[in-house]
Amino acid sequence: MAESSVSLDTTSRNAVELIGICKTFPGGVHANKNITLRIREGEVHGLLGENGAGKTTLMNILYGLLTKDAGRIIIKGEEVELQSPQDAIVRGVGMVHQHFKLIPPLTVAENVVLGLEPILVSTKMESHLGGWSVKSVGVLSQILPVDLSAAEKRIVAIAEENGMNIDPKSKVMDLSVGQQQRVEVIKTLYRAADILILDEPTSVLTPQEVDELFVTLSKFKEQGKTIVLITHKLREPMILCDRISVLRDGELVGTVNREDTSPEQLARMMVGRSVSFTVEKPPKEPGSKVLSVTDLVVYNAQGLVAVKGVSFDVHEGEILGIAGVEGNGQTELVEGIVGLRKPKNGQVLVNGKDLTGKSPRKVRNAGVSHIPEDRHKKGLVLPFTIQENLVLGRHADVPFATGPRRMLLNLQESRRVSKDLVQTYSIKVSDVSSSAQTLSGGNQQKVVVARELAAQPKLLIAAQPTRGLDVGATEFIHQVLVGMRNAGLGVLLVSAELDEIVNLSDRIAVMFGGKIVAIRKPSDTTVEELGLLMAGHEVAGGSDER
Amino acid sequence: MTADESSAEVEVPLTTKPLSSLDLLNAKLYTWSFWKPVMWAVISIVLSLIVSAVIMLLSGYDPLLAYRTLFYGMIIQPDYALYFATPLILTGLSVALAFKCGLFNIGAEGQVYMGSMAAAIVGYAVALPIVIHPLTCLAIGAIAGGLWGFVPGLLKAYRGAHEVVTTMMLSYTAILFTQWLATYPLREPGQVQLTPQLPAILPSAAIPNVVGNYLHWGIALAIVSVFVVAFILNRTVLGYEMRAVGFNRDAAEYAGIDPRRNMALALGLSGALAGLAGAGEILGNYGRFIDHWSPGIGFDGITVAVLGRNHPWGTLLAAIFFGALRSGGTFMNAVAHVPIEMVGVIQGLIVLFVAAPRVNDWLAKSGFGYAIWVKNEPKIAVPNLAALVFGVISSVLALGYCTMKGLGGMFIGLYFLVAIVGAVSFGMTLSKYRRAPFIHVVLCMLWLLTGAVDSLYLGGVSFRTAAVMSIAGFMIAVALFWVRSKMIKEGRCQP
User: Out of A364, A379, A409, whose CB is closest to B240?
Assistant: First the structure.
């Protein structure tokens, strides 16, 4: 067993030892159950698990953000009781959170030194006073000017050392997400961290930015730093990590060496059963046209043309995948079809009925269901109960509305239907009358999917349906989409994940710069060709399948 | 009873009986999330009473006598309390309903005036049978107030004009418009009073009293309105859509709800409730429209809604509480001679404390360091912040006294010393110096000493100030040292 070989290691070689960590949140969620984890000095250690498996909780305990209920923490051979992140930082532990803790209007340098200003002041004073200690200044340090120029120099030095490129004087709000992440990394390095915890660092990055991050991380490894990489994706630890620990439901399933494992094994450890990466898809003859879009032109919120004359059809029993790098008009295209944005030109026909520029309710009533790309912003009313969310959009229709002119809510009926849906889609909830905020991301998405499919649509528009979801939930959504296609629905799938598009689609349309540049059958194309098309390169000799 | 019968009885409700709303309410009563805001409301009331007591002490009133009479007055005249509560329930509901749709109706006062003017006109100018007449007046009043809310609703929905600005400005328009009506075209003929007013309403239009001289049947109307608003919000499609728009406009739009229509309707309904409040007061209480008759019931509606957490039933309780405070206040004024405005101070402080956590959350979100500290470690941050504020207040007060007295070196010297130590204590606490609590204690002792010396020579306001400051200071010190000992135990602070 891999675990036993790990525990034989002497403690001196371990950067961090977590022994028997337990954590129960108020409300009775056992986030960590007796977890023992040893992280060796100078290794890249992957911490893998589904959403809600307890990865972030465990690392927050190591970083001093949360207090453990039981167990021991040993950092570099010294047993510690961490009361705050400060205690962890002085021992060389740094953490980059999934949601950045930066102040947008401040500059990079100001963000990096945040919390260290008094120290900066004293060092500057000391240099002026010729080595005389200014610790005694105390109160005065609050009102002395902060020496930012020295900090800026050091930030540039740290950045260059690690192959990062950043201007310390630029404001954080002007930076891209990838650059903001760099600022977070520099923040930890500035505090001389040699044990670096990265929480889902790739979830917000573009593929190119991911590659850059990995280059940086391998540089850290060369310098002998210890890195803990929290992730729920299988590809990343297989590229970068030396050893991978898998958590499931708050328990450590095991620690494996990268050489001895495979993505399939890791997925099995994560989910507790084997996971199929490819979806079984029987061949199916597409039926009549469900959706027909002709010359659609849609403007974005800034008043610029985002969709420049797009035409395509979706047939019954077919999944049409729209591939493309995000921001090439996919969002506006979907919004133009479902009525959230009025098209400037063109036509949208659903089952032969003209729905161009009709209100979202009319489009819904015509049999169109829509899984929006941002479930927090559009898909759910988070403070609403699960029951209220499960009838959203159908709340004004029989049987959920009763009484004269369907003005009253039928709470009994919606409760009954909600309970059915929760069971059918195995949504993990304590009660349908608890708020949607209490659900994990995967279960929130299941609520959206359950609701949209319960409307028995003719056409399903799924935008980024698996974004931010773990392996198990992604597999579930994929099966649901293919199941709908097999049942004769037309499915329009918009996704930035090329693998997803290739695996699920019957036809693939590539969108670039607001136009559909090509439509291909998966059998007639390669991932390389699609990648080139997505990047805007003309590919000669391709046969369009309109 | 046999075993078979009992088991059958257990199974039947499990399988067939649908969960009633009463069961849901029962289940809700056992959750912390339900009791937490209630707890905080009670704590806010207690805190505001403590602070008000300090203010009364400093202004030379006896807080103990004041509170005794206040509470006595709140209890002995329930009809008087409900009389004050009647319009507050309706205006509170008005603000709460708009807020559920994500709108802040700050101009309920203007809608109150429009409603009252419309009701007063119908009340004196149209002859109708008894019962029908007041009901017609109320309906017309609600419609007038509703229109006055609907206009900013339309502006918000279709033109994007912010409702805080438009409702506020239309509020002034309404007050001045009704003033003009009462002064010129509709002024009571042959009237000699200085305050412009309309002719009295016909007796058929008056709302009779329930009991006594004050409480009229408008209270029944207000309580029915609570039921109606609760029903609209929780049981109708309209209420569901309004709440959806209030929580998440994008998601509502995505789900086929028209946010514009709902926002306009919500402000219209909100205005109708405020108009109803105004109409009820005219018919049941004033008997005619008098210029500037309202003691600010529209604005008080905002405080009622805040204390009631924008919940219909919470609004009812909050309005009754504020009504009782008003009725107790008049009693307190009569017996303890504390100005009636003190009730306004208590009321304002309650709202301040109720809203404090939300304001703090907002500040913490926008990156304000102390707010983040209070949010993450309230037990440590609050005593420290109190010490910080105490230092500043000490410094300012003492400086004030040492310039004011001009009475020999000893007073000037003592107060000057207090001012300096106060400033030092402030600085030390600000820089989180670990021995700051000791300086704080020195400051408290100096206040005690000053108070003792002062009592020998002068007494009066400065003596009371010193006494209050030393007591408050020592209470903060106890908290500070408790926190300190805790931190030392956890190893976060050197002894």
Answer: A409
d(CA A387, CA A372): 19
- Domain assignment of residue B54, yes or no: no
Bond into A237 cis (ω within 30): no
Cβ–Cβ of A378/B18 closer than 8 Å?
no
Cβ count within 10 A of residue A148: 19
Contact A380 B251 (CB under 8 A): yes
Both B326 and B398 in one domain: the answer is no
Same domain, residue pair B278 and B180: yes
| CA separation for the pair A331, A321 (Å, rounded) | 14
Mutate to test the interface with A, among B21, B22, B237, B365 (most CBs of A within 10 A): B237
**CB spacing of A415 vs B19 below 8 angstroms:** yes
- CATH, residue B92: 1.10.3470
Report the pLDDT value the prediction gives residue A103, as an integer from 0 to 100. Answer: 86
Domain of residue B397, CATH code: 1.20.120
Cβ–Cβ of A395/B19 closer than 8 Å? no
Contacts of B253 in chain A (CB under 8 A): 340, 360
What's domain A2-92+194-271's architecture? Answer: 3-Layer(aba) Sandwich (3.40)
Cα separation, A505 vs A483, whole angstroms: 13
* Residue where a domain stops, chosen among B337, B355, B389: B337
| CA B349 – CA B336 distance, rounded (Å) | 21
Asked if the C-beta of B253 comes within 8 angstroms of chain A's C-beta atoms, the answer is yes
Q: Which B residues in the span 412-451 are in contact with A, Cβ-Cβ below 8 Å? A: 427-428, 430-431, 433
Asked if residue B413 and residue B267 are part of one domain, the reply reads no
Q: How many domains, chain B?
A: 2
- With beta carbons less than 8 A apart as the criterion, state whether A511 and A322 touch: yes
Q: What are the residue boundaries of the structural domains of chain A, listed by start? A: 2-92+194-271, 276-367+457-546, 380-456
Helical H runs in B405-459?
408-430, 436-457
The answer to whether residue A171 neighbours chain B at the CB level (below 8 Å) is no
Strand order in the sheet with A345-350: A305-315, A289-299, A345-350, A353-354
Contacts of A383 in chain B (CB under 8 A): 247
Neighbours of B491 (CB within 10 A): 10
Per-residue pLDDT reduced to its tens digit, B263-306 = 999 999 999 999 999 999 999 999 999 999 998 999 999 999 99
Q: Which residues pair with A310 in a beta bridge?
A: A296
With H, G, I as helix, E, B as strand and everything else as coil, classify residue A219. Answer: helix
pLDDT, tens only, A331-373? 899 999 999 999 999 999 999 899 998 999 999 999 999 999 8
Burial class of residue B289, CB neighbours in 10 A (0-12, 13-18, 19+): buried
The verdict on B401 and B463 lying in the same domain is yes
Residues B394 and B303 in one domain: no
Q: From CA A447, how far away is CA A445, in angstroms rounded?
A: 5
Per the structure, the complete domain to which residue B473 belongs is given by 377-489
For A276-367+457-546, which CATH class?
alpha beta
User: Closest Cα of chain B to A382: distance in Å?
Assistant: 8
Any B CB within 8 A of A407 CB? yes
**A283 Cβ contact list (under 8 Å, min separation 6):** none
What is the tens place of the pLDDT at every residue in B33-47? 778 888 888 899 999
Extract the runs of DSSP E, i.e. beta strands, from B331-484: none
Contact with chain A for residue B14, Cβ under 8 A:
no
Both tokens assigned to B356? 């404090």
Alpha-helical regions (H) of B59-131? 63-76, 78-100, 108-125
Q: Is residue B472 part of a domain?
A: yes
Q: Are residues B326 and B382 in the same domain?
A: no
What single letter denotes the amino acid at residue B85? A
Asked if B369 reaches chain A (Cβ–Cβ under 8 Å), the answer is no
**A253: helix, strand or coil:** strand
| Whole-structure pTM value | 0.73
